[in-house]
Amino acid sequence: MDIKTLFDNAAQIYDQTRRQYIPCFDDFYGTAIELISYPRDAAVEILDLGAGTGLLAALVAEAFPNAQITLLDISGEMLAKAKERFASQAQRIHYQLLDYIHAPIPGRYDVIVSALSLHHTEPANLRITFDKIYTALRSGGFFINADQVLGPTPEIEAHYHQTWLRQIRERGCTEEEINLALERMKADRTSTLDAQLHWLRATGFEEVNCWYKHYRFAVYSGRKKGQNTRRT
């Protein structure tokens, strides 16, 4: 099943188990928000890449009430749920239905964020996607990715997986919910953290760093070269 169909089908129930599927939910998303290095009242333009139902975008919108936020996703059903979420904020929330792997990223942004989307990208395409992200950022802009990473060895990857299964069962996931997650994970094309950080630097990003990691869940960022006057 292709990615678009997979997430179109999951849109209605996608948000229900987010905190269970992501054992480190608060630190994972919280770190991504903290890395947006602008004053909280700044009128910045932010793109949520692979935004889904708008979970990350909602946290960004709450933290940055004057930001203009664009949600980009391949799934129309996911974006439809996002529109329900942001029904009262139509003036500053925008939507783009697009397969960012196979098309340029339109617009220019101060910040591009992404959560649990890029790990669906084949490694050969991920480096190209980083190039697109770099191009879509304004000078001095930030890219922040909260995602899953592949273990650097098969043994470590197996440990990641078994730890995740144990943790989500402890948080009340049923076997049916686990099986749904495992079915979606068949579409994962995860790369190692070291490889992703290397590709970011090779693309031209500066200040590349992983700021948070919990087994397979990681948050990293990079800054486009240049000075962004909106930071102050």
Description:
The chain is of the alpha/beta class. It has helices at 3-10, 18-21, 25-34, 55-63, 76-85, 123-136, 154-170, 175-185, 193-203; strands at residues 45-49, 68-73, 93-97, 109-115, 137-148, 206-214, 217-223. The protein has 9 helices and 7 strands. A 7-stranded mixed beta sheet has the order 3-2-1-4-5-7-6, with helices on both faces. Strand 1, helix 4 (55-63) and strand 2 (68-73) form a beta-alpha-beta unit.
Brief summary:
The protein has 232 residues and is of the alpha/beta class.
Instruction: Give the number of DSSP strands.
Output: 7
Contiguous low-pLDDT stretches (5 residues minimum) are none
Could you say which overall geometry the principal axes of the C-alpha atoms support?
Answer: globular
Reported for the largest beta sheet, the result is: 7 strands, mixed
What structural category arises from helix and sheet content? Answer: alpha/beta
Query: Could you estimate the helical fraction of the residues in percent?
Result: 40-55%
What is the spatial order of strands in the main beta sheet?
Answer: 3-2-1-4-5-7-6
End-to-end Cα distance: 46 Å
Oligomeric state of the chains present here: single chain
